[in-house]
Each structure stands twice: as C-alpha cells, then as structure tokens.
Amino acid sequence: MFRTRLLLAAAVLAGATACTPTLQNHGYRYIEGEAPVITPGEDTRATLMNRLGSPSTSGVAGVLDEGMRDRTWYYISETRESLAYQRSRTRERRIFAVHFDDAGTVAAVEEYGLEDGRRVAYVDRETPTRGRELSLLEQLLGNIGRLPSDTFTGEENLPGGAGGPRRR
Questions:
Q1: Nearest 10 degrees: CA dihedral of 36, 42, 47, 48?
Q2: Strand-strand pairing, 89-100 and 72-82
Q3: Positions of the region Disordered (predicted)?
Q4: Could you tell me if 81 and 71 are in contact, meaning their C-beta atoms sit under 8 angstroms apart?
Q5: What is the per-residue pLDDT across 136-151, written as a single tens digit (0 to 9) for each?
Q6: Are 77 and 28 in contact (CB under 8 A)?
Q7: Which residues pair with 166 in a beta bridge?
Q8: In sequence order, which residues have a C-beta less than 8 Å from that of residue 153 and are 6 or more positions away?
Q9: Do residues 55 and 97 make contact, with C-beta atoms less than 8 angstroms apart?
Q10: Is the dihedral of CA 66, 68, 72, 73 positive or negative?
Q11: Which among 126, 97, 100, 83 is positioned nearest to 40, based on CA atoms?
C-alpha cells in the first residue's frame, strides 16, 4: 500500500513539473521595468559600447553610401516561454533603436515592444517545374525494363561504378 502511494505521488510530481514553463532569455537582459539610460546629444558609439556592449544588430536604413554605415544600432532582448511539448512563444520583447548623427553622437532613441510587432504573411505559391509529376507507383515501377542488358551477363564493373570500362 505504501509503495503504491509513493509511486502515485512520484507520478503526480512528474506530471506537475512537465507543466512548468521553461523561460529562455535572448539578447541583453534588462532588469524588470528598467530601461538603459541613453542620452541623445551626449552619448556616442564608444560610450554605448562601454555601457551596453555590442548591439544585437545594426541597420543602414536604405543608405548605401560607405560613410553612412551603422546609422542605427538595435539592442534586442526577448523572453521565450515553452511548455512541455508545445511550441515556444514570445512572452516579452524589447527593442531599443539608437539613431546616430554624422559625428557618431546619439540623435534619437526609440523603444519598441511586443505589441509593435507585425505578422508577416508568407506567400505559399509554388514555382512550377518542367516535366511531369510521377505518382508513387510510377516512381516504384519506373525502372522496370530499363536495366542495361549486359548487367545479367556476369561481366564485372571496375571500381567506381557502372559505365566505366569492362574487364576482359
């Protein structure tokens, strides 16, 4: 009786831990409710690198001139939650976009959250290919009658596969 209760309690605990969500943090982790202090007009690329580290990514905003590279730095943090066998979902996302002027000084800072994201609708059209599509039966039986006649004569191929010179 005691063994049955012990096994039942172990099964209940194992089931309860399977329902506990697993949190995964990606990117720079901010303290809850805090934001990094970035002062436009005072901070530069060097001060941000010292304080926050390298940005998650940087953008050009459509300008291809070599002197205009890295005009915007993005600091991205994300918390994802996964529960047992279900797909993980994003629980929280914070993106700080830091825009620089020509001198490398911070011009503006924008903050985006999970609610600012947009779903992207993928086009599920397929590119047509030439030729015909074979059914499963045609694929399985398609080579019957196509074997070379000298395969059954007992002649051996040299190493390297069929189609090479034959031994005499």
A1: 40
A2: antiparallel
A3: 148-168
A4: no
A5: 888 788 777 676 655 5
A6: yes
A7: 157
A8: none
A9: no
A10: positive
A11: 100
